[in-house]
């Protein structure tokens, strides 16, 4: 079952682009990454899902219901952490969380205390006195206190130290194991790789690809490094599928995508002393999608 269905969603801000014809689905139980550089359109997509802004065209459904028409119903089941959190500074942390909980008409006191313990958040402090990172933790507790079925996170880790990031990821994994679906927006590749099963990559307002993380890695190019006994002519490895070919003395480097047999045969036909074949890391794969086209 799809928890989120986005169909041809477009949002323009006056004459400027927000997002253009975005479509993808998030299935129940997934931790789904939404990744792209600054200004790509992640927040615009998320704000539309939450009916904080209206689409110019297209639509989106959450739990099978139109996200604008059924917004009040849907919001009860969503935990949202915005990229930037703002609060009325005069309130105490616990009072703000109780106030937030009152919207869901259930007693969340036990859960607030559990989450505060996990995230090491002092409930007795005034919001005014919290550091940026602690305000972020408050946002996390606020987003999760009603045990939502869908958790939407927009750049959630900015401001958290590495230990807290780790605790937060573990918390998300626990919620996911209990059944929550997670949409995780980020421009940080390593955290998406660590947490998500599938990703949508967004660039300049449009979806570039939607893939399993594992498939992204498998279908990509391989990196070859070959040490030869004698210096080779550069043309020797200039084969279809080869790119970024560099030959320096006895060392040959290139990237290869395609049928491996041809290139392995070429290697076998020359006198080599060593060969290394490596998978690109995820960062290199993403960079390929990120690069701006002129
Ligand atoms: N309120 C607004 N008015 C005009 N243009 C906007 C507005 N909000 C966003 N945009 C534009 O829409 C595009 C997408 O922005 P958005 O904030 O959705 O990107 P993002 O992927 O979330 O980026 P970031 O990682 O920097 O938050 C950008 O070109 C941005 O300038």
Automatic annotation (TrEMBL):
<keyword id="KW-0813">Transport</keyword>
<dbReference type="InterPro" id="IPR003439">
    <property type="entry name" value="ABC_transporter-like_ATP-bd"/>
</dbReference>
<comment type="similarity">
    <text>Belongs to the ABC transporter superfamily.</text>
</comment>
<dbReference type="InterPro" id="IPR027417">
    <property type="entry name" value="P-loop_NTPase"/>
</dbReference>
<keyword id="KW-0067">ATP-binding</keyword>
<dbReference type="InterPro" id="IPR050763">
    <property type="entry name" value="ABC_transporter_ATP-binding"/>
</dbReference>
<dbReference type="InterPro" id="IPR003593">
    <property type="entry name" value="AAA+_ATPase"/>
</dbReference>
<protein>
    <submittedName>
        <fullName>ABC transporter</fullName>
    </submittedName>
</protein>
<feature type="domain" description="ABC transporter">
    <location>
        <begin position="4"/>
        <end position="229"/>
    </location>
</feature>
<keyword id="KW-0547">Nucleotide-binding</keyword>
<dbReference type="Pfam" id="PF00005">
    <property type="entry name" value="ABC_tran"/>
</dbReference>
<dbReference type="InterPro" id="IPR017871">
    <property type="entry name" value="ABC_transporter-like_CS"/>
</dbReference>
